[in-house]
Every structure is written in C-alpha cells, then in structure tokens.
Amino acid sequence: MALRVAVDAMGGDAAPAVVVEGALQALDAAPERLEVQLYGPRAIVEAELEKRRALGREGLLLSDAPDVIGMAESPATAVKTKLRSSIHLGLQAVARGEADAFASAGNTGAVMAAALFILGRLPEVARPSVVGFFPTTRGRCLVLDIGTNVDCKPEHLLQFARMGVVFVERVWQVERPVVGLLNVGEEPGKGNALTKAAYELLQAAPDLNFRGNVEGRDLMHHAADVVVCDGFVGNVMLKVGESMVTAFVEMLRQEMQARGIDAVQQRQVLGLLRGVLRRFDYEEYGGAPLLGVNGAVVIGHGSSSARAIARMILAAAELVEQDVVRSIAEAFHPA
Amino acid sequence: MALRVAVDAMGGDAAPAVVVEGALQALDAAPERLEVQLYGPRAIVEAELEKRRALGREGLLLSDAPDVIGMAESPATAVKTKLRSSIHLGLQAVARGEADAFASAGNTGAVMAAALFILGRLPEVARPSVVGFFPTTRGRCLVLDIGTNVDCKPEHLLQFARMGVVFVERVWQVERPVVGLLNVGEEPGKGNALTKAAYELLQAAPDLNFRGNVEGRDLMHHAADVVVCDGFVGNVMLKVGESMVTAFVEMLRQEMQARGIDAVQQRQVLGLLRGVLRRFDYEEYGGAPLLGVNGAVVIGHGSSSARAIARMILAAAELVEQDVVRSIAEAFHPA
C-alpha cells in the first residue's frame, strides 16, 4: 500500500521551486511506496512541474490550494482567514483519510495552529510538541519540547516523555529508550519548581525507563535517548547548539588566518570539519515531527533545500509506516 | 594601597595544594598591589607553603580556619555548623574590612549561602547572581543568571541587567553595554510569561541600553554585551556550550580516524583546535563574580588548576580595583 504524503508546495523560503524539486527527489528515493500530493495554487505548481518535465509523473498528484500563507504572516489570522491554503487543504486531506501524513516547511505557527484545529489532539494529550534532534557522540537524542510550549506544567513534561519514547522506539528502533529530565544538577531534588515536580511524576511512571536528571553537559554524551524540558529551555538550547557550530567554524578560520596557514591546508581542515558538521545538519533529518496531534505531521525548516524537503517527505512517510500516531494514542491508553 | 584578597585555601577538588600554588602564581603576576590571605587549617596550609619554600613570603598571609567544608557537603548544614571554616572566616574578614575581596573554588552553594549570611545583599538587590562568561566571535558576553536563581520573577531579570552592565562597564571597560533578553524569538511579544513581562521592564528602564530579545543563535555572534535569563536556562545553556566543545573535538577525532588521517596530521589539526578551545576555557577567566552581595566575591570552578586559581584571585582583586560593589549599589540608587 502506498504511503500518501500531502505536501505544502508553498511552504519554505524558496517555495514552490525547491519543494517541487524535493518532492521529485523523494519519489526517486522511494518510488514504489510513496505517493506525493502537492498542495498549492494549481497554475504555479504546474509550471514548476512542467519546467522539470514532471507533469503527470507517477506517484505525484496535484491539488489546487489557491490561498498562500506567507512565512512571516501571523498564524492566528492566517489560519482563520486563508481556509483554502495548502496548509489547510493538506491537513484536511489527512483528516479525511485521503492522505496519510502532511509535511510542510512553511509557517511553523500556522502549521501547528491548523493541525490542532483540523486534526485535533490525541485523547489525553494536553500539549502536542514539535521535537528536536540533538547530535551526540553516539548518534543523536530526541529533545522535546523545543519551542511549541514555552510555559509548561510538570504533567506536560511527563507527556512529552511518553510521546518521545514512542517515536524513538518506532522510528529509531531503540528498545526501552532511556528518558532524562533536563536539569541543573544530577541529584534528585535539584532544579526549579517545574523540574522538581516533573521528576516526581517521571519517577513514578511505570511505563518509562527514567534515568533521572540530565545536565546540559551530559546531553551530547548521550545521557538519554529522550530528553524532556519546557519549550523555552529546549528552544534556547538547540539554537545555542546550532550557533556554536557555526561560530566554532568561524573561530577556526580566524585561528588559521592568525597562524598564517595556507589556503590549501585551510581547505583540508574545513573539509574535515564538514564531516563533523553533517551531524549537526538539519537537512539530514529533514523535519521535526509534531507529536500528539491526531495525524502524522512533519514540519521542515523554512530554509530547507530540495534535499531537506525530500528527507522531510520521507520522514513523514516513515511516521506512517511505523504507525507512530496510533502508538502514541496507545501509550496514553495502555490496554 | 594593596588589594587584599582572602582566599579559601581548602576550596576546590585539589585543595589545598593547587590553591597554594595558584596563590603564589597570583603574587608573581601582581607582586606590588596584591596581598593574599590564605584561610585554612594552619598546619595543613603551612605544610603546603613549606613544600614550596614560601612560608613568610611577602604579600602572603595565613589565617587559621580549622573547619573544612567538603565539595559535596550540603551547603545549608555546612554553613550553619562549620562556623570556623575557611569560607566563613574569609568572608568575615571582608565584612570587617580586614580583606577587600574573597575568592573560593570551593562548595559553590556554601560560598553563596555564607556570603548572603555574612555580607548580606546590597540594598534593593533581591537576588544576587553568579555570572557566566560566554565566548563570542567578537570576544565574550556576560550571561546572568547561570544557576543561582532557577525560578525568577521579571524584576529579577531587570536587576541582573543592571548588575551585569556595571560589571561590563567597569571590568571590561565597555561603554554603554548593550543588554539583551534571552528569548525564543526576536520580536517583542515573543517568549514565555517571564520573558514577556521582563521585556516590558527592561524596555522601560531609562538607565539601560536595551537591545531587545536575543535568540540562542545570536548569542555567540555577540548580539549583546550583557544577556539576562533565569538561572535555569542560563545554567543549561552554559553547560551545553561547554559540552559541545568537548563533543566537537571527539567527533573531529572520530572523523579523522574514519578518513585514515595519519597521527602527525591529526596532531596538527588538534593543535589548531586548541587555539579555538582556549576561548572556551574557564581557566582564562578564573572565576565568576557573585554580584549583588555587599562585598567582592569570586567563585572558581571546583576543578580549577593552579593557573585558574591565580586568575580567580586576580579577578577578585580587579573587582576591588574597579570598585564594582559600590558601583552596583549606586546603579540601584541613582544620584
């Protein structure tokens, strides 16, 4: 059976060209199992397909969605007024069972607001969450929340843990994922009001493999597979991480300049760095799933390249294949 | 006039040997202006001095403090029961005007609790704060709070800004330091309940050069000289930053191994990195000032080397020389 992914053709800084290109790359990578449904203004998307001689390509469908939500538009307004946008119609296709997943590199706030409105939350999930991937020396860990929920209650962190575990089990195929609570110290009893209370809840949850508190410094050394925190902290942490990498490269350049290292050697060292940087590259992951809504949704980076779009679409297909949404629902309603 | 720094000879993982060694290095670096007062059990500290033939060295005093507070001891209990510790007696010397500053690489919680108890807060300072230094591509910025205050109110962030500005003005000699509020987005109105309210306060403060919100990714690109946040976020961020650097080096090693790069070249690349890593090295800074108490206090890293101890002592002397404590008091009571 095909995995039908509805794709926001107008989502992203370089949409629709890059999205169309990425959709074709995704189909090349997984031709048999994938069906891509492009949502966007028909004439515009058709023109992009024609440019690439891809009109009528097998596995590629086009659905007209005349309204366009800009990257910087207010989500609240856009979601209420642009009811025929690619975001609305793509999500509605999922809600109606005409698509299995929705993927967008568009306006994150609008995608989330529309997903909540159109798909709704899974029963008992108070706060759906966009997750982040954090590179570690042993691979990567899942961090949630990373910005969707900037003011959290302890029970939200418990729910994040539960959702994150399902994702890591199903998609990364990790058995009994280790859960850590991001905190300022390892000992129980450390932390702010939120983490102290969340610790108790996590500790008492029989379904979780809870390791306890995890400090910022342990994260990259893979202290846990799933790290939970409120979205404010998670967002700051991920952004600092991203910027450290670019700053690090800039500082290394400065250092090489200062030491008078020649251009050839500079290129060699930077080439070496590129291998390391790839681990920090969101393009490898394509997009972050929005967990906790009643449907498979992946949100990509606004500056996604075609390659990142292709990965985002494949990530959405994988959510479906691994039955992540139903597994989360079950984790909240143990049989 | 000499700058008299009371030093906790028993503070740090490798105390007292490393502290005594560091004190001597500090005196070597600033022989004329510095007086170091070592606080610790007399016999133990004397033995260390004797080993180094430094007993009776000019500028070096020894005061008996028989109680020892362990690095892992509960601050609350230690502060109440070990009244003749190096931490208590050193801080009391400052309170009595027998020393100008106190420096310790010991139990951070105990130093802070004792400093609050013995020196007290400056008038109107609700929350004294340990500050952190964050390397940027243009130097470094000051981040506060970094763990002293894990649950903050908006007015605390305003006070952090005020104290941080004084430090950066006086010690780093930056004119009209730019203040940023660490947040999840740049636009006003972004953030959690705390940062939204803090934004309003910072914006309305006529004495501050407030730039607005600063995202995690802008920090390393020197978006501000003084970045304020609650201590939970600051602590996580600094620790992630530290660990990213070590993880980065480990990943680079892995990459070189994988590419079969020979040992000589590996050493060359790692040598290059060392120049960059130095910017992230706390030893360069020595210790973090505790701002907002009625006295000059610097807290060093528990794992401080002799070199870091020396820098910590010199940093304490600089707080005195730049009259930071009085300047903070004045910032809270404009003439």
TrEMBL record, chains A, B:
<keyword id="KW-0444">Lipid biosynthesis</keyword>
<comment type="pathway">
    <text>Lipid metabolism; phospholipid metabolism.</text>
</comment>
<keyword id="KW-0443">Lipid metabolism</keyword>
<dbReference type="GO" id="GO:0006633">
    <property type="term" value="P:fatty acid biosynthetic process"/>
</dbReference>
<dbReference type="GO" id="GO:0043811">
    <property type="term" value="F:phosphate:acyl-[acyl carrier protein] acyltransferase activity"/>
</dbReference>
<dbReference type="GO" id="GO:0005737">
    <property type="term" value="C:cytoplasm"/>
</dbReference>
<dbReference type="Pfam" id="PF02504">
    <property type="entry name" value="FA_synthesis"/>
</dbReference>
<dbReference type="InterPro" id="IPR012281">
    <property type="entry name" value="Phospholipid_synth_PlsX-like"/>
</dbReference>
<comment type="similarity">
    <text>Belongs to the PlsX family.</text>
</comment>
<comment type="subunit">
    <text>Homodimer. Probably interacts with PlsY.</text>
</comment>
<protein>
    <recommendedName>
        <fullName>Phosphate acyltransferase</fullName>
        <ecNumber>2.3.1.274</ecNumber>
    </recommendedName>
</protein>
<keyword id="KW-0963">Cytoplasm</keyword>
<keyword id="KW-0808">Transferase</keyword>
<keyword id="KW-0012">Acyltransferase</keyword>
<keyword id="KW-0594">Phospholipid biosynthesis</keyword>
<dbReference type="InterPro" id="IPR003664">
    <property type="entry name" value="FA_synthesis"/>
</dbReference>
<comment type="function">
    <text>Catalyzes the reversible formation of acyl-phosphate (acyl-PO(4)) from acyl-[acyl-carrier-protein] (acyl-ACP). This enzyme utilizes acyl-ACP as fatty acyl donor, but not acyl-CoA.</text>
</comment>
<keyword id="KW-1208">Phospholipid metabolism</keyword>
<dbReference type="GO" id="GO:0008654">
    <property type="term" value="P:phospholipid biosynthetic process"/>
</dbReference>
